[in-house]
Amino acid sequence: MKSRTAKAPDTTVTDPALVKRAVKAAALGNAMEWFDFGVYSYIAVTLGKVFFPSGNPTAQLLSTFGAFAAAFLVRPLGGMVFGPLGDRVGRQKVLALTMIMMAAGTFAIGLIPSYATIGVGAPILLLVARLVQGFSTGGEYAGASTFIAEYAPDKRRGFLGSWLEFGTLAGYIGGAGLVTLMTALLSADDLTSWGWRIPFLIAGPMGIIGLYLRMRLEETPAFAAEVEKAETNRPKVPLREMVTGQWRALLLCVGLVLVFNVTDYMLLSYMPSYLTSELHYDETHGLLVVLGVMAVMMIAQPFVGALTDRVGRRPVIATGCAGFLLLSVPALLLIREGSLLAVALGMGALGLLLVCFTAAMPSALPALFPTRVRYGSLSIGFNVSVSLFGGTTPLVVTALIGATGNMMMPAYYMMAAAVIGGFAVWRMAESAGRPLPGSAPSVAAREH
User: Of residues 406 and 318, which shows the higher confidence score?
Assistant: First the structure.
């Protein structure tokens, strides 16, 4: 395929149409990941009945979420495999591979026979499918954000990167919304016998579309330039160098991802359960509130992304950290007041603060690392932080409430994360409008 990016002396000139296509292809993978997340979370009770022995609904649900959590355990392993591979053979090839694995894992769940049909084989196959999903996810976010960042012109990297999390929100709304619609239209028996398979089987066609889009992409200009520097194949960068050689940037990455994901999982994953278990909202109403908040976030996402290009990533991320530090308690008090208006205001405030992270991080995180180790180092830092802090947020907060009896623990946990994130922002360098480390300045063709 003929390249549609050009390399002027010391400047990379990108084709806007090609950049737009790259953003779409990268965002679709994220949308698919979170489509699965939304489906699995909100159909968990039904999956427990299908895949685990009957008799104890609590044990069924815990087993289902255990299989869900297993995917988080293998994410760092996926990052350690796909990240260095992306720095070795190219971003585009690895992103195509993660798309295939993600689609295959999700589609396979829709084909697994029930426990009543094949016995213990059913939960084993479910666990295997979840491990495939988690392993592929380890290379997805870092690769997609790296891909967009390396394609984007320096002056528009924040705006273009923000569409990655737009895809995340769209996928989650699509998955959770589909489950809500099916729950309303199907009887409990139909949902348990065959209806639950539909959302997972949809992943097949989605994956084929995503793979087609990703296979049509060229390698990023930054990676192509890195390859040109080497006389032969690019030298393999040892995994140790990706960690010890980038330890300061990795620590900043872990801190930024910590505040980003603790607040993200608190709002989008834990709060529906909090509304149901603590405030006795029925599950549908709690979910609809969260879906409404995510719809508002989607609208704000590209505008805040563009704002980071004008004022910088640091001020926007710092605003989010300060907001969670100061407003987490008032927002949770509003939510606990219980009326629909109060809950919507409290959740909405937290959602708009979260946009400070979702809009800025896809462009801020890749800028922490030089081109030759960007995919690998970012994969390792991102997935370690998500697995240790983000994905465990619902479990830890539930345990803290159980141990202390203090219903304000979600607010205190977000405040602690905001302090860590604030320190990381203080120590990071501003990257808005500047070339990525190790890359030439990048401009759109019309700017050149």
Answer: 318
As a whole number, the mean pLDDT across the chain is 86
Is the Cβ–Cβ distance between 445 and 16 less than 8 Å? yes
Residue type, 241: E
Q: Each residue of 235-261: pLDDT tens digit?
A: 566 666 666 768 899 999 999 999 999
**Nearest Cα residue to 425 out of 307, 352, 317, 319:** 317
pTM: 0.89
Question: Is the per-residue pLDDT at 184 higher than 50?
Answer: yes
CA distance 88 to 184: 48
A 10 A CB-CB count for 212 gives 12
Mean of pLDDT values over 98-106? 89
Whether pLDDT at 2 is above 50: no
Edge-to-edge strand order for the sheet containing 6-8? 6-8, 11-14, 442-444
With cut-offs at 50, 70 and 90, classify the pLDDT of residue 445.
low
Distance in angstroms (rounded) separating the CA atoms of residues 411 and 414: 5
Beta-carbon contacts of residue 431 (< 8 Å; ≥ 6 apart): 157, 313, 363, 364, 367
